[in-house]
Design a protein that fits this description.
The protein has 266 residues and is of the alpha+beta class. It has two domains: 115 residues; 142 residues, no CATH class. Helices cover 32% and strands 27% of the residues. It contains five helices and 14 strands. Strands 1-14-10-11-12-13-9 form a seven-stranded mixed sheet, with no helix packed on it. It has a four-stranded antiparallel sheet with strand order 2-8-4-5, with no helix packed on it. Strand 4 and strand 5 form a beta hairpin. It is elongated. It starts with a helix and ends in a 6-residue tail after the last helix.
Length: 266
């Protein structure tokens, strides 16, 4: 399944040589072009061979039991919240971290070691437990709660729609944002793995024929185009690469759908 950068590079050079009669590009330039095209492809296509599932158990949203000032280091929320022993919460645009939770009081749970309060918050405001996304998260493809599909929305749209989710970055970590959950809801986020820049020492996350047929043609076409493309071969190979990307993604994803039917989340 894996394909090295060196193999894609060799194929890219063969196209350049065949169409221009010479190859004057350094490995650095060719490799950078291949990686740029890799990023463009991943932004445009959801690829089955990079697909992963992230399974979570839902935590019901809470409400504040007291006003919160920007200088506070504790936050009181409804009793028996079920929140994680440490983590991050979302209140009206604030992503707030806490280190412990004290559940000993009979009237409220108290989040302690709180940091990151940028604006005041008020009693009865909604408090959402955030879920850290995997470090290799690249892009969402589908989210289900109890087997019901949820749609991605921006944070502005998210609040006014049911069965929606959003994501949020904070301090270098990306979080999943969900509302209207019940305790023990079954959450499955299907996502596309983030593919790091390809190197000669690390296998690429693409099947061999995909790496060559898509990235090889796209990179060669771009380099020919950058050189002036007097014969129009740069445009031709970019078109070939784009067509291959669409057709091969469709083929791989259909096979992935068939293979995955027996592993539905229960």
């Amino acid at each position: 399944m894996a394909n090295t950068l060196n193999e894609i590079r060799t194929f890219t050079r063969s196209i350049i040589l065949e169409n221009s009669g010479s190859d004057v590009y350094t490995d650095t330039i060719v490799d950078a072009t291949i990686n740029i095209k890799k990023d463009e492809v991943l932004a445009s296509h959801r690829l089955a061979f990079l697909q992963k599932d992230y399974l979570l158990t839902g935590i019901e949203n809470a409400t504040l039991k007291a006003d919160v000032a920007t200088t506070d280091t504790e936050i009181r929320i409804k009793k028996d919240s079920g929140f994680n022993s440490s983590g991050n919460i979302y209140i009206d645009g604030d992503v707030i971290a806490y280190t412990t939770i004290d559940t000993s009081n009979t009237e409220y749970d108290e989040l302690q070691g709180v940091t990151g309060i940028d604006i005041p918050h008020y009693n009865e405001n909604l408090v959402i437990q955030l879920y850290s996304l995997p470090s290799d998260f690249g892009a969402d493809t589908k989210l289900e709660v109890n087997n019901a599909n949820y749609d991605y929305k921006t944070r502005t749209q998210f609040w006014n729609k049911s069965r929606t989710f959003s994501t949020i970055w904070n301090s270098g970590t990306q979080y999943l944002l969900l509302k209207d959950l019940a305790d023990e809801d079954k959450i499955r986020l299907s996502y596309q793995e983030q593919a790091d820049d390809l190197t000669v020492s690390v296998d690429a996350p693409f099947p061999l024929n995909y790496g060559k047929s898509v990235l090889g043609h796209l990179a060669a076409g771009q380099l020919l185009l950058d050189a002036g493309d007097p014969d129009g071969q740069g445009v031709t190979h970019i078109t070939i690469g784009e067509t291959n990307a669409f057709n091969m993604a469709k083929t791989y994803n259909e096979q992935f759908r068939v293979d995955r039917q027996s592993s539905e989340f229960v």
